[in-house]
Amino acid sequence: MKRIYFESHDMKERIHIYHHHTVRKSPAALPVGFNWHENIEILCIAEGSGHILCNATPYPVKKGDIFIVNAHELHGMTSANSMEYHCIIVNSGFLADNGISVTKVHFQNRIHDEALWAVYMEAVNEITSSNAYSQLGVRARILELFVLLMRNYLVDSATPDSESNTVISIKKGVQFMNAEYARKLSLDEIADAAGLSKYHFSREFKKATGSTVTSYLNIVRCNHAKLLLASKEYSVHDVAIQCGFTNDSLFSKTFRSVMGYSPSKVKSKQDAPQ
Questions:
Q1: In this structure, what is the dihedral angle of CA atoms 256, 262, 263, 269, given to the nearest 10 degrees?
Q2: Which of 16, 233, 260, 265 could form a disulfide bond with 27, CB atoms 3.0-4.6 angstroms apart?
Q3: What are the backbone angles phi and psi of residue 19, rounded to the nearest 5°?
């Protein structure tokens, strides 16, 4: 998890971004990858099970499920053991060129549909193949996906401009932590940036993310620390200070609890778990 905030997605001439990942339970059982973006994201669960947290609602998902993340929905995921999934993020400009405005449509989040699954996997096959005209195949399959979604899974829902005040506040808190992680932060400061009392923010943040504010701030700090350590330009002490930890011992203890290995492991790339 390298980014934990609004993702702009550098699509350029691309019509999609594709990932194939496995989420494994972290040592501290913390959520993975909270962010939001203007592009629609379609996830297919290939193996295992877990939860996708979307706009403060946890959805249990398992093998065979499809999950739609609509534009600007705050989302992340957890798994008690492991969960393998495919992810296609579709360029909003490409959809607009084909008559679909991501700000005016809202799809059902969790879906189980064998026909939709089959088209999705055809899209994955086109994306991962080196066959002639595969890009045309990708375009055709993605448009076919959206035909099925538009016909069967449109729901009446709020647009991003009228999303709940709670979700807006949580996004503000996430952005603030990502921007200010390098210094000492109090719960009062974070809640104030979110526009809520610390008690209200703590309760709603836990409900939305499955994590306490302190635990989530530690995720932010440790992910930034991992990037600095991997650069091999800084000592463990320097990284600890740059990432908001008051001493090396606290940094090492927290890093191990979040990542499952010590900061020194990252110094040697081949030794650092992926």
A1: -120
A2: 260
A3: -135, 150
Which residues are CB-neighbours of 145 under 8 A, at least 6 positions away? 42, 116, 119, 120, 123
Per-residue pLDDT of the chain (274 residues; tens, 9 = 90+): 334 444 555 666 689 999 999 887 765 555 666 788 889 999 999 999 999 988 878 899 999 999 999 998 888 888 888 899 999 999 999 999 999 999 899 999 999 999 999 999 999 999 999 888 998 999 999 999 999 999 999 997 554 444 678 888 988 998 899 889 999 999 999 999 999 999 999 999 888 777 899 988 998 899 899 889 988 889 999 999 999 999 999 999 999 888 888 898 886 654 444 4
- Which pTM value belongs to this model? 0.75
Query: Which three-class secondary structure state does DSSP give residue 195?
Result: coil
Rounded Cα gap, residues 167 and 143, in angstroms? 30
Residue 74 has which token pair? Answer: 């705050």
In the numeric block, which tokens belong to residue 139? 């375009």
Contact yes or no for 171/31 (Cβ under 8 A)? no
Tell me the CA end-to-end span of the chain in Å, nearest whole number. 11
The residue type at 261: Y
Contact indicator for 89, 37 with CB cutoff of 8 Å:
yes
| DSSP designation for 154 | B
CA dihedral 189, 192, 197, 198 (to 10 degrees): -20
H and E: helices and strands count for the chain = 10, 8
Look at the alpha carbons of 57, 205, 213, 267 in this order and tell me if their dihedral is positive or negative: positive
